[in-house]
Specification:
The complex is a heterotrimer of chains A (293), B (561) and C (435).
Chain A: E1 2-6, H1 8-13, H2 16-25, E2 32-35, H3 52-69, E3 72-75, H4 78-93, H5 95-106, H6 121-129, H7 131-137, E4 147-150, H8 153-156, H9 172-179, H10 203-219, E5 224-227, H11 230-238, H12 240-247, E6 256-258, H13 259-267, H14 284-292
Parallel strand pairs in A: 1-2, 1-3, 4-5, 5-6
Helix pairs in contact in A: 2-13, 3-4, 3-5, 6-7, 6-9, 7-9, 10-12
Chain B: E1 7-12, H1 24-32, E2 37-43, H2 49-61, E3 66-71, H3 74-87, E4 95-99, H4 101-105, H5 112-132, E5 140-142, E6 146-150, H6 154-165, E7 169-173, E8 188-189, E9 194-195, H7 196-209, E10 213-216, E11 219-227, E12 230-237, E13 240-246, E14 248-251, E15 255-257, E16 272-274, H8 275-284, E17 293-297, H9 314-328, E18 333-338, H10 345-357, E19 361-364, E20 372-375, E21 380-386, E22 391-396, E23 399-402, E24 406-408, H11 412-419, E25 446-448, H12 458-478, E26 480-482, E27 488-490, H13 500-504, E28 510-512, E29 518-520, H14 530-534, E30 540-542, H15 547-558
Parallel strand pairs in B: 1-2, 1-3, 3-4, 6-7, 6-14, 7-10, 14-25, 16-23, 17-18, 17-23, 18-19
Antiparallel strand pairs in B: 5-26, 8-9, 11-12, 12-13, 15-24, 20-21, 21-22, 27-30, 28-29
Chain C: E1 6-9, H1 13-24, E2 29-32, E3 47-48, E4 53-54, H2 55-68, E5 72-75, E6 78-86, E7 89-96, H3 111-115, E8 119-121, E9 130-132, E10 134-135, E11 147-148, H4 154-158, H5 163-167, E12 180-186, E13 188-191, E14 196-197, E15 214-216, H6 217-224, E16 245-252, H7 268-282, E17 287-292, H8 302-311, E18 316-319, E19 324-327, E20 334-340, E21 345-351, E22 353-358, E23 360-361, H9 365-373, E24 400-402, H10 412-434
Parallel strand pairs in C: 1-2, 1-13, 2-5, 13-24, 15-22, 16-17, 16-22, 17-18
Antiparallel strand pairs in C: 3-4, 6-7, 7-12, 8-9, 10-11, 14-23, 19-20, 20-21
Helix pairs in contact in C: 1-2, 1-10, 6-7, 7-8
The chains are: A mainly alpha (293), B alpha/beta (561), C alpha/beta (435).
Chain lengths: 293, 561, 435
């Protein structure tokens, strides 16, 4: 399996742990990742809120580059994934818009055909590699560790466009967690939004939204939270201290991981290669527990 | 029968259903010891062809003239055993059943001894009654193959045509001077938007052309005598009396529609009309060209204290008309103010989506805060608070259309008295049973369909009309009806003419004869026994459930086994 | 010349009514039913709205009348496979699956079921309890004859056991029975195959299939029915505790453009009200809430029934369809997450039992039957009438009529009235073709 790896802005500029853990683990599962040359931001969510054409142009441009590489594209960020899916859908429905975009792409020698296959990380791991193969490669099973699954909104919604997983009852991330030997179960807040899209306009509200979810997760006895989106991760991990302040909950210390970081630990990778030193939530103890086995 | 009773008692094991809990051999032995019991025997399955044969053989061998079967429920098996007795030469009314399964073994499974005692009591009771049973005859009545349909609207016409197609003659009585009813006043019908005229005119044409249907216009029912099979219906056609001799009657008199005077400015403010009036405006064509904004108000005069029922069709009617208005002129603003949108089923739900797509604005209001309509210079103004928006809308409009309910025809009271059929609390005609007999009246031979029964749309009325024609066709197709023998009998010597029984009988089976005394029409009597139970003079007795028989059973129950 | 018989396909209340109307007027009827007994869905209901009659109590006499009627021949475990000809002269091939029990010998005593060692999930009880491999569909089944589910029977699967034939006092077991083809010549065909309820597992937000205490309305009917698996006690499936706080969710799978169907299922608001009143009758102290979008009270007596439910029984009605049923992973308590659209506020309310009022959908068998009869189906799989206004019970094929839910959701009185109407149509055909 070979994919064109699309990192997007946030991962490249700050979420190094995600990129590091992906590059470390996916090849070990037989996935070859090829970097894309000359890609830009996908346009979501900032540009998409002010210019439809601009947004679709940016996304289509990135997709055209992947098409030229002759590979399916693997966007790591939930938001980029949604952006690509929506762009593909709208340009299919609106040939005029597609035309305008291609006229501009032509200037760069690019052309968006629209036959690109867009694969989410969950699909690549769950459907294409498979939980069986993953568990066979696990050397440090995460036994006795309870992890809360947070697929994130833009992996599963809107349900008529996104077919990554069931929008009301997503289970793929849960299956992948179990493949590592860890325990997971459904909880009421599982598909609740992390709130990061509101961060620009209503900072306090988002801290409350995210914080209440973390408190709930902790109350169910989970040892940590797992996600595949840099925005969600940033909110739960990077802003956990601010959340604690906003909720006045000093004991809210919940470890937050990217799935691929835990995957790496289970496959026996060096924690440094997974960027765990950069997680701002208190992951140290849990990582030690995993390493000790 | 003056001969001595020779009772045969047959006790069934019913596999293990009875035999597993009741000591059947013991019960048989007990039965044999009862006075007047000439023979008793057990059987594994009395209802099997083998068991029935044994009963018949025993009747002949032991010259039995009464038969008691102690087994399961008469509900399912009485007719079976009765037939068996008849085949062996006995009258079916000298047969009695004791239910020692449903009423004994099944409910006392954990107390077999007591169950056996109870079974013996039940048998003793059945024997006590059997002693007094006498053969009864089931009179047959003739059914005239002519039907009467009251009402010449879409329901009446449909019924009449169906009856004619089934091979009967029909009298169709219509109070107006023309056939067609309400559909003559409508422009289009939902759900297919077919023109009402295209639906009603072919029916009128067919009825007029039919040699089997006699139409009486300007005609009303004046009185009704008789019973199923031989109704004599007096009608008055432009004052001229006539008697129609028919076998069955179908009530298809339709309904009226409310003119909600004083409600939402109706009758006071200009350009406030009802949906019916809007239909008329559609028919005339061109009358609505100047109308750019229009507000429809649902439940105008219904679903309230005075009229609690929902009129079923108004929401879909409003939607049909709203779509029409917007499609005619896409610049129009059409609002429908509703409480609960009654777009039920498949077709009407689809119309609702159509309306929304066409730009019709559906605004929900709550009955605690009704919309207000005032007359302004420009036209009516509507103020409505919508809880969903948490906002009060003020709509300057060209026209307000009130979806006023279908109401019972004011003739219903009189007609119900003539036919002696009941009206429900909403004053529509009341059927025999809401679920399983929606087209029958409790009185045999009279049926109902269409909006005479309750508000409904055309397709539903048409189905009901054909259904009523099926129901009416049954007795007429048979030609003769055997009536049950279990009917009440009045002892004229004791009857004081108080009329209590007449008032209580829901089947209208009792009338006062020339002597002012109660007389039972056996053909219509259902044998419910209410008359017998309520007669203060004890003048009424029930065949096959005479006072003596019941007293004998009661006394037998109190004896020790 | 004797009239030809009529065939009625489907033995629910509509098929039964049509058969009785025809038989009573002297026509012969072949009533063809796919399952081992007639009765249909109405036999599975506890009570009917708005009269609160016991459903099987009012249906059973009609079922028995069908059975005993000299003019009606009931063919159970049978399906219509082929039809040729035209109005007045249809040649119909009916395939009868083997009961493996001799109908002329079996007395319905039930001993075979008692001794059978194999348990199977009981579909008729909506999976809430088990039956045996040899069984009688329900206690009031007509005909009251056992039948063997060959797919689960040890003898047919592994060649062992045969306990039923050893204990049957009537010697009625017949393992050698083969499918039988019956050829009929009829003047008209009445289709009354009824409906199916939607399986809400696909609608993940309600947790059906994951949370045991989220059930469908049909499962509720069996739960609350005295002849059901709990003897009529409202015990929640997860732990058997009595349910005191019950929620009804309307429009599950209906009035939606997402997963499900866009149409309104007509009867659910009323049957939810009925079920709510049933609960209150059993236990006036219980808290019952109905979550709805628009309350469909269009039938006769419906609004008054709802008024009574509200004012006399204290059933709460909330205008707001729940977004989600949530379950606490530790306590397993269910909660309904909803917006009360009248106030605009969002609430989370704890519940012991949640009943999903699922939409009526077309039976998948309609497709095959439509092919056999030459009928059209609408986009939802229901049979299409000739004209929705003028001929709602006629189809495009002369001599073939439809009644009841097989052509769209409707309630019992409507189905019964339509059934009588199709009987009139069939009688007209008879007369037309006889002359």
């Amino acid at each position: 399996m070979r994919y064109a790896l699309y990192l997007g802005c946030t991962i490249q500029s700050e979420q190094f742990g995600y990129e590091a853990s992906v590059r470390e683990t996916l090849p070990r599962l037989g996935i070859e990742l090829e970097d894309m040359e000359g890609v830009s931001c996908c346009g979501f969510p900032a540009l998409s809120s002010v210019s439809k054409v601009g947004w679709h142009y940016l996304s289509a441009r990135n997709l055209a580059i992947a098409e030229d590489m002759g590979l399916a594209v693997l966007p790591l960020c939930n938001g980029c994934h949604l952006s690509f899916i929506e762009t593909k859908h709208f340009l299919e429905k609106d040939p005029e818009l597609k035309n305008i975009i291609n006229m501009n792409l032509e200037k760069e020698g690019l052309n968006y055909r629209g036959d690109i296959r867009i694969v989410h990380l969950l699909e690549a791991l769950h459907d294409e590699v498979g939980t069986q193969k993953i568990s066979e490669k696990v050397v440090k099973p995460l036994e006795g560790i309870k992890l809360a699954s947070h697929p994130g909104c833009h992996a599963i919604r809107p349900s008529d466009l996104q077919k990554v997983d069931d929008a009301e009852n997503p289970q793929k991330l849960d299956d992948l967690i179990r493949a590592l030997g860890a325990e997971t179960f459904d909880y009421p807040e599982k598909i609740d939004c992390c709130g990061s899209q509101l961060a620009v306009t209503s900072g306090r509200v988002t801290l409350r939204i995210a914080g209440e979810k973390l408190q709930a997760v902790k109350s169910y006895g989970f040892d940590g939270l797992v996600t595949t989106c840099p925005f969600c991760f940033k909110m739960y991990d990077g802003r956990q201290r601010a959340i604690k302040g906003a909720l006045k909950d000093a004991s809210l210390d919940l470890p937050v991981f990217y799935y691929t970081q835990l995957l790496g630990l289970a496959l026996g990778s060096d924690p440094k290669s997974l960027g765990l030193q950069m997680n701002q939530s208190p992951v140290g103890d849990l990582v030690e527990r995993i390493l000790e086995g | 029968m003056s001969e001595e009773p020779r009772i045969g008692v047959f006790v069934c094991h019913c596999g293990i259903n009875i035999g597993g809990y009741v000591d059947v051999p013991d019960v048989v032995e007990y039965a044999t010891g009862l006075p007047d019991v000439a023979y008793a025997e057990p059987n594994l399955y009395m209802c099997s062809s083998d068991g029935l044969q044994k009963i018949q053989e025993a009747i002949k061998k032991y010259e039995l003239n009464r038969v008691v079967v102690a087994s399961c429920t008469p509900r399912t098996h009485e007719p079976l055993f009765q037939s068996a007795c008849e085949e062996a030469g006995l009258n079916k009314y000298v047969f009695e059943m004791a239910n020692i399964r449903d009423q004994c073994s099944w409910v006392h499974m954990h107390e077999p001894e007591k169950a056996t005692q109870k079974a013996k009591s039940l048998v003793r009771m059945a024997v006590a009654k059997a002693r007094l049973l006498v053969p009864e005859e089931e009179p047959e009545i003739d059914i005239r193959p002519t039907g009467l349909v009251i009402g010449g609207g879409v329901s009446g016409l449909t019924s009449a045509l169906s009856l004619a197609d089934q091979g009967f003659k029909v009298h169709l009585v219509e109070k107006e001077d023309r056939l067609g009813g309400t559909l003559l006043k409508l422009d289009t019908l939902f759900s297919s938007n077919v023109k009402a005229s295209e639906v009603i005119n072919p029916l009128i044409k067919r009825v007029k052309a039919s040699t089997d249907v006699t139409v009486h216009l300007d005609s009303r029912v004046a009185d009704v005598k008789g019973f199923i099979g031989s109704f004599d219906v007096g009608i008055e056609t432009r004052g001229e009396p006539e008697t129609l001799s028919v076998g069955t009657i179908i009530v298809a008199t339709g309904a009226d529609y409310l003119s909600p005077e004083g409600l939402y400015g109706y009758g006071q403010v200009d350009n406030v009309v009802t949906q019916m009036e809007l239909e008329q405006l559609f028919k005339e064509g061109g009358r609505l060209d100047g109308v750019k904004t229009l507000v429809m108000i649902q439940c105008a005069g219904s679903r309230n204290e005075e009229r609690p029922y929902c009129s079923r069709v108004c929401c879909t009617e409003a939607i049909k008309n709203a779509i029409k208005l917007v499609k005619e002129n896409p610049k129009r603003d059409v609002y429908i103010l509703y409480r609960d949108l009654q777009t039920y089923g498949i077709e009407f739900s689809m119309m609702e989506y159509d309306a929304k797509k066409s730009g019709v604005k559906l605004v929900m209001y709550d009955k605690e805060r009704l919309p207000e309509v005032t007359g302004e210079e420009r036209g009516p103004m509507v103020r409505v608070y919508s809880p969903l928006l948490d906002e009060e809308l003020t709509i300057e409009t060209d026209m307000v259309v009130l979806s006023a309910p279908i109401i019972p025809n004011e003739d219903n009271e009189a007609l119900s008295k003539h036919l002696k059929v009941p009206l429900n609390s909403d004053r529509f005609f009341m059927e025999a049973h809401v679920k399983l007999r929606p087209l029958d009246f409790a009185t045999d031979g009279i049926y109902v369909c269409g909006t005479a029964h309750s508000p409904k749309e055309v397709a539903e009325s048409v189905s009901q009309a054909r259904g009523a024609a099926s129901r009416a066709g049954i007795p007429m197709a048979k030609g003769r009806l055997k009536t049950a023998a279990i009917t009440s009998v009045v002892d004229e010597a004791k009857c004081s003419g108080c009329g209590t029984c007449i008032e209580l009988c829901v089947y209208n089976a009792i009338t006062k004869n020339e002597r002012g005394l109660a007389q039972v029409t056996s053909a219509v009597c259902k044998g419910c026994g209410v008359c017998g139970a309520s007669c203060p003079e004890r003048a009424i007795t029930m065949r096959h459930f005479t006072n003596e028989e019941l007293e004998a059973q009661g006394l037998a129950a109190l004896k020790e086994a | 010349m004797m009239d030809k018989p009529v065939i009625v396909i489907g033995g629910g209340v509509a098929g039964i009514q049509a058969s009785l109307d025809l038989a009573d007027r002297g026509l012969k009827v072949h009533l063809v039913e796919k399952s081992p007994s007639i009765g249909g869905v109405m036999a599975q209901l506890d009570k009917t709205f708005p009269t609160m009659d016991c459903s099987i109590c009012i249906l059973a006499p009609k079922m028995i009348e069908c059975f005993r009627h000299p003019n009606i021949t009931i063919h159970t475990l049978s399906q219509v496979k082929e039809v040729t000809g035209k109005e007045g002269n249809f040649d119909v091939k009916v395939l009868k699956e083997p009961r493996s029990v001799d109908e002329s010998k079996c007395t319905g005593c039930g001993l075979c079921s008692e001794k059978c060692p194999t348990k199977v999930s009981d579909d008729w009880q909506k999976g809430l309890s088990e039956r045996k491999a040899i069984y009688i569909l329900f206690p009031q089944a007509v005909p009251l004859i056992a039948n063997i589910d060959r797919e689960h029977c040890l003898y047919f699967q592994k060649g062992i056991c045969q306990v039923c034939s050893k204990v049957c006092p009537a010697g009625a077991i017949d393992y050698e029975q083969q499918p039988e083809e019956i050829s009929l010549n009829v003047s008209s065909i009445i289709v009354a195959t009824g409906f199916q309820e939607l399986n809400p597992s696909e609608l993940g937000e309600y947790g059906y299939g994951r949370y045991k205490d989220v059930i469908t309305s049909m499962e509720f009917e069996r739960l609350v029915c005295a002849s059901g698996p709990t003897g009529g006690h409202l015990n929640r499936p997860s732990d058997g505790k009595h349910a005191d706080r019950i929620a009804f969710v309307q429009c599950v799978g209906s009035r939606t453009h997402k997963k499900g169907y866009p149409y309104c299922s007509s009867v659910c608001c009323m049957y939810a009200t009925k079920e709510a009143v049933l609960i209150k009758e059993h236990d006036p102290g219980s808290e019952v809430t109905i979550f709805y979008i628009d309350l469909k009270v269009f039938g006769q007596g419906f609004q008054q029934f709802v008024d009574r439910a509200k004012q006399h029984w204290g059933v709460e009605y909330v205008r707001g369809k729940p977004g989600e049923i949530r379950r606490n992973p530790l306590t397993k308590d269910l909660a309904i997450w909803y917006e009360d659209t009248m106030t605009g506020n969002v609430y989370e309310k704890e519940m012991d039992l949640v009943v999903l009022c699922t939409t009526m959908i077309a039976r998948p068998g309609n497709r095959e039957l439509a092919g056999v009869l030459g009928l059209k189906l609408d986009e939802w799989g229901f049979f299409k009438s000739k004209d929705p206004v003028r001929s709602p019970i006629e189809t495009d094929v002369p001599g073939v009529f439809v009644c009841g839910c097989c052509h769209g959701p409707r309630d019992i009185p409507e189905s019964v009235a339509e059934a009588s109407a199709t009987a009139a149509c069939a009688a007209e055909v008879s007369r037309r073709c006889a002359s």
